[in-house]
Amino acid sequence: MSSSVRMCIVCRGRFPQKSLLRLQYQNSKLQAFKGFGRSFYVCQNCQNTPKLDDCIIKVCRLDKKHKETIKSALKEIFLYG
Ligand SMILES: [Zn+2]
């Protein structure tokens, strides 16, 4: 159903919600979506793209100085998420 289709923040492609990784930036931390608050989606292809951290910085309106923090948070999410 179209209601469960969401846009990937990196490639802007539309995909079924269930196939997307849902993340959020909350309390100065990037994490897997916890069930409430603002969130965004990343498709499976884009989970490996080197520009993923840049896209997250843009979407969350963060300063570029957070890039390394975002990168390590992404590693954790992909390992344990
Ligand atoms: Zn994508």
Task: Describe the structure in your own words.
The chain is of the alpha+beta class and 81 residues long. The protein has a single domain, classed as 2-Layer Sandwich (Hypothetical Cytosolic Protein, Chain: A). Helices cover 27% and strands 23% of the residues. It has helices at residues 52-59, 67-80, and strands spanning 5-7, 14-16, 21-26, 29-32, 40-42. The strands form two sheets. A three-stranded antiparallel sheet has the order 4-3-5. A hairpin with a 6-residue loop joins β1 and β2. α1 (52-59) crosses α2 (67-80).
Named CATH architecture: 2-Layer Sandwich
From the 3D structure, determine the CATH topology. Hypothetical Cytosolic Protein, Chain: A
Number of E-type strands: 5
At the first level of CATH, the class is Alpha Beta
**In this structure, how is the largest beta sheet organized?**
3 strands, antiparallel
* Proportion of residues in helical segments: 25-40%
Q: How do the strands of the widest beta sheet line up side by side?
A: 4-3-5
Q: Which kinds of small molecule does this entry bind, naming each only once?
A: zinc ion
**Broad shape:** globular
Count structural domains.
1
Strand content: 15-25%
Mean pLDDT: 93
Radius of gyration: 12 Å
What is the string of helix and strand elements? EEEEEHH
Provide the low-confidence segments as ranges.
none
Structural class: alpha+beta
